[in-house]
């Protein structure tokens, strides 16, 4: 699926250092982040990128605007299932017919005692499966993260009747904390 020149690209949760800047030559490149300071920093430091500060569960864009929606390590920070579903639904809403949704994130890792302990603690604290709190050395909550079941990802992409899964792969990856984990990458194309 080659990107057509001039296709607008939306990078969800782009953070202070958008990861896909090399794609901006394909068309308008918009970086969306929930954090106002991050969006402001992007606007000042990244050439040819339009920063937007908004919630990915309620995006301020018209329907069918983007040729590509990128979602790298975003769902891991959207812990609850209804919010994950809203992010995916919004990504589909703003994707034009024939456009591509690209998602990359982490799968659960019950083979690692470290992650298993975190998942069990998360469930004991009322978090969904695969979710856990990340705390500072002082014990303060830094953020809550979630790793996904393979089946959950594939089933949820499959729920969008106008999306067709065109590529899925799993690769070794490293988390922010330096732990080895398996990441998934998928591409789904919206029907024409």
Would you spell out the secondary-structure blueprint of this structure?
Blueprint: E1 9-12, E2 29-33, H1 36-45, E3 49-53, E4 66-72, H2 81-94, E5 95-106, H3 113-124, E6 131-135, E7 141-146, H4 150-158, E8 163-174, E9 180-190
Parallel strand pairs: 1-2, 1-4, 2-3, 4-5
Antiparallel strand pairs: 5-9, 6-7, 8-9
Description:
The chain is of the alpha/beta class. The chain contains 4 helices and 9 strands, in the order E-E-H-E-E-H-E-H-E-E-H-E-E. The protein has helices at 36-45, 81-94, 113-124, 150-158; strands at residues 9-12, 29-33, 49-53, 66-72, 95-106, 131-135, 141-146, 163-174, 180-190. The strands form 2 sheets. It has a 7-stranded mixed β-sheet, sandwiched between helices. The longest helix has 14 residues, at 81-94. The protein is globular, with a radius of gyration of 17 Å. It starts with 8 loop residues before the first strand and ends with a strand. The model has no long low-confidence stretch (mean pLDDT 85).
């Amino acid at each position: 699926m080659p990107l057509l020149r001039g296709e607008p690209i939306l990078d969800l949760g782009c953070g202070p250092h958008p990861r896909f800047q090399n794609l901006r030559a394909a068309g308008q490149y918009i970086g969306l982040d929930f954090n106002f300071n991050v969006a402001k920093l992007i606007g000042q430091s990244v050439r040819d990128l339009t920063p937007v500060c908004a919630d990915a569960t309620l995006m301020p864009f018209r329907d069918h605007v983007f040729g590509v929606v990128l979602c790298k390590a975003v769902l891991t920070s959207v812990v609850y299932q209804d919010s994950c579903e809203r992010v995916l639904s919004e990504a589909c809403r703003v994707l034009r017919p024939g456009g591509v949704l690209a998602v990359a994130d982490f799968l659960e890792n019950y083979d690692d005692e470290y992650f298993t302990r975190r998942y069990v603690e998360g469930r004991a604290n009322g978090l969904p499966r695969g979710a856990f709190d990340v705390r500072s050395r002082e014990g303060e909550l830094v953020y809550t993260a979630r790793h996904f079941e393979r089946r959950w990802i594939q089933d949820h992409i499959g729920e969008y009747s106008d999306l067709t899964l065109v590529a899925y792969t799993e690769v070794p990856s490293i988390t922010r904390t330096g732990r080895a984990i398996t990441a998934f990458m998928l591409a789904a194309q919206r029907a024409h």
